[in-house]
Specification:
Blueprint: E1 3-6, H1 15-22, E2 35-36, E3 100-104, H2 111-120, E4 126-130, H3 136-146, E5 152-155, H4 161-167, H5 182-188, E6 189-190, E7 193-194, E8 197-198, E9 201-204, E10 206-209, H6 210-215, H7 224-236, E11 240-244, H8 250-265, H9 268-276, H10 288-302, E12 322-326, E13 334-336, E14 342-348, E15 360-364, E16 367-370, H11 380-393, H12 396-403, H13 428-432, E17 436-438, H14 448-459, H15 465-481, E18 489-490, H16 496-510, E19 515-519, E20 541-542, H17 545-551, E21 558-564, H18 565-574, E22 587-591, E23 602-608, E24 620-622, H19 626-637, E25 639-640
Parallel strand pairs: 3-4, 11-12, 15-17, 18-25, 19-23
Antiparallel strand pairs: 1-4, 2-13, 5-16, 6-7, 8-16, 9-15, 10-12, 10-14, 13-14, 18-20, 19-22, 21-23, 21-24
Helix pairs in contact: 2-12, 3-17, 8-10, 8-14, 10-15, 14-15, 16-19
Length: 648
């Protein structure tokens, strides 16, 4: 992980299953013609070498300056106590405004966004910290829990309310929060304080084929009763009423909670239960409202709206064979088949029995907060710049800069205009009336998959309603009493170089190699990052797969080359020129038993596939991912600290 200070002229960023399900969109196959839509030395055992130099605690300080005038910090050394996000700058910018550090992951902070900020606030400088690993949500969650955050904290979810209060500034007394809708602010209120502000959001409900509905003269149902009455007519027309996605556990989990929002989960009591259950502060069997949810979900099953069969929308829905589709949002609202027939798609809310409490599921794209550190004496200018940035984000121009004016999303701001062509226009009344509920994730991370598996059994008829509630309680007990140290326990936080060495050793052992090399990520400007490098450091913790995914190179295989010691050292010194622009990413090289490489001797070099250039034809693939290799190695270490990381 590295950062770069940017000053751009006026002219010129889970349980992994649920995260995957949250971004599943409408596919367009069926012969589609297309749809429309929106290295220096390091501590630890083993010899290591790399291009560039670093301080004792991890991150090398060769921060580059792009897109604007040079600043006093542009070429200074930056190092954090753990090689983490909170990197200091060597000097203030030339305009007297010390840069605001901000992390970019999942393309959350783009240079287009920075340009838009400078159109309004040209004196704000940015120090962009790049995370390019596999688990951006995990990075946001764990860095907040550790208080290892930049000046501007960015997240995909509103993690850990208690940690927000500890590490983020309360924004509730600033004027710009009045730009947000009351419903959005209420969802982020913690005992009268607001620590995060949202960007635009998408909504998910039940998708329907608008073209088929219009061709047959069918009215879009506004209640579950009306939907049930429409089914015989659909079947009489030779069409399938329903399709639903079921390949990932995130689907049944979200279907259950989304349908349940219409009867209890969307109420104050239901929201309280959703917050209390994963903490062990409420059970399922005695929750009367949960019985109403289960009864409604059973009705959805009996009606055939939800089934255990996975019916992918590219095989059924988009091709015009099916009228209604259950998914978690769609990315395309039209589809043209090979014959030139175009289908238009629409969205309707999850339906309550009589239509009085229909609900949409809301998924906010990203959240922004300000580090509480900026409230300390001496940070007055940085705090002012941070608040100006939040003020910009709270404007229509800011929201467009974050997500793009052409994308399909809803603004969280008051008085946001929605024209008739917007895909959400037909559910505008539902949205404006506050009938949207945030997708369940935060707090349920460890429970999502096992609870989803209970719901699957209920859908298939293996569990009755009473048995489902009891299964929820049993699942919570098993998860809470179980251990999360399946992959070992780390007793001290590693810096970035130690984390890279940990990965290299793991891959070297997995490949039965003599040495191993991994690259480090660094922001190179213009959105360039090293997506198969090590992006972050490993925190002291019980190690689970979410943490493995956060720090391991994102590669499905490991490669091995047989090279001489001289050739391997030359590779390490040259660095990884992934972008082909002569600006390489630093390598970390580790050898077995810390031995020196002899120039003329041949060695087996292991590395994440794709991270060594120029020898592709000579590589031998090892069918094991970097994540699996790291998990196997940390498991073998058991309880360990930095001194235990060695390759014997």
């Amino acid at each position: 992980m590295e950062s770069v200070m940017i000053k751009i002229s006026r002219t010129k960023i889970f349980s992994v299953m649920i995260a995957a399900a949250m971004v599943v969109g409408l596919c367009c196959s069926c012969g589609s013609s297309g749809g429309s839509g929106a290295a220096g030395g390091s501590s630890g055992n083993g010899a290591s070498a790399g291009a560039g130099s670093t301080g004792n605690n991890g991150n090398s300080g060769n921060t580059g300056n792009t897109g604007g005038p040079a600043s006093g910090a542009a070429n200074g050394a930056a190092s954090g106590s753990n090689g983490g996000a909170s990197e200091g700058m060597a000097g203030a910018a030339s305009n007297g405004h010390e840069p605001l550090s901000i992390t970019s992951f999942n393309n959350i902070v783009t240079e287009e966004f920075i340009d838009a900020v400078h159109e309004v606030y040209p004196d704000i400088n940015f120090d962009i910290i790049s995370y390019a690993g596999k688990n951006g949500s995990g990075y946001a969650q764990f860095s907040l829990e550790e208080g290892d955050i930049p000046d501007i904290y960015v997240s995909t979810l509103p993690f850990a309310a208690d940690k927000q209060a500890e590490y983020l500034a309360d924004l509730s007394n600033y004027d710009f929060i009045n730009q947000y809708s009351t419903a959005m602010l209420n969802a982020l209120d913690h005992n009268g304080s607001i620590y995060l502000l949202p960007s635009g959001y998408t909504v998910a409900g039940i998708t329907y084929n608008k073209t088929l509905m219009e061709e047959h003269g069918w009215k879009v149902p506004e209640s579950l009763e009306e939907l049930e009455a429409l089914v015989p007519e659909i079947e009489k027309a030779g069409l399938k009423p329903f399709a639903n996605a079921m390949e990932l556990d995130g689907f049944p989990f979200n279907f259950f909670f989304s349908a349940g929002n219409t009867v209890w989960f969307g109420s104050q009591d239901g929201v309280q239960w959703k917050n209390a259950f994963p903490k062990g502060e409420a059970d399922a069997v005695s929750a009367e409202g949960l019985k109403d949810v289960i009864d409604l979900f059973q009705r959805y099953i009996d009606d055939g709206i939800i089934s255990s069969e996975n019916t992918p929308n590219d095989d059924y829905f988009v091709c015009g064979d099916t009228v209604f589709d259950l998914n978690i949002g769609i990315s395309h609202y039209s589809y043209t088949d090979d014959a030139g027939h175009t289908y238009e798609f629409g969205i309707m809310p999850w339906l309550s029995p009589d239509g009085s409490n229909n609900m949409l599921t809301r998924n906010v794209s990203r959240y922004f907060g300000v580090s509480k550190e900026l409230e300390k004496p001496g940070n007055e200018q940085k705090l002012k710049d941070a608040l100006d940035l939040m003020r910009f984000i709270a404007s229509p121009e800011g929201q467009n800069a974050i997500l793009g004016a052409g994308n399909i999303w809803m603004s969280p701001l008051n008085g946001a205009h929605m024209d008739e062509e917007h895909p959400y226009y037909e559910v505008a009344d539902v949205i404006n009336s506050g009938h949207t509920v945030q997708m369940v994730y935060v707090g349920w991370e460890d429970l999502i998959i096992p609870i989803a598996q209970d719901i699957r059994k209920f859908i298939s008829g293996e569990l009755s309603g009473d048995e489902l509630a009891a299964a929820f309680d049993e699942t919570y007990k098993e998860v809470s009493e179980g251990t999360t140290d399946d992959y070992g326990v780390l007793t001290e936080t590693l810096d970035i170089k130690q984390t890279a060495e940990l990965n290299a050793i793991a891959e070297g052992i997995a490949a039965d190699a003599d040495c191993a090399i991994v690259s480090l990520n660094k922001y190179h400007g213009d959105g360039l990052t090293n997506k198969i490098g090590v992006s972050w450091h490993l925190y002291a913790s019980d190690i689970d797969m979410a943490r493995i995914n956060m720090v391991a190179p994102n590669t499905a295989t490991i490669s091995v080359l047989e090279l001489t010691g001289a050739e391997i050292r030359a590779i390490a010194e040259a660095g990884f020129d992934a972008d082909g622009n002569g600006i390489p990413y630093e390598y970390v090289l580790v050898t077995k038993q810390g031995s020196e490489l002899e120039d003329g001797k041949t060695y087996r070099l292991a590395f994440p596939t794709g991270s060594v250039i120029g020898h592709e034809n000579d590589e031998k693939l090892i069918e094991i991912s970097a994540q699996t290799a790291l998990g196997n190695y940390t498991s073998s270490l058991g309880t360990f600290d930095a001194a235990d990381i060695s390759w014997q």
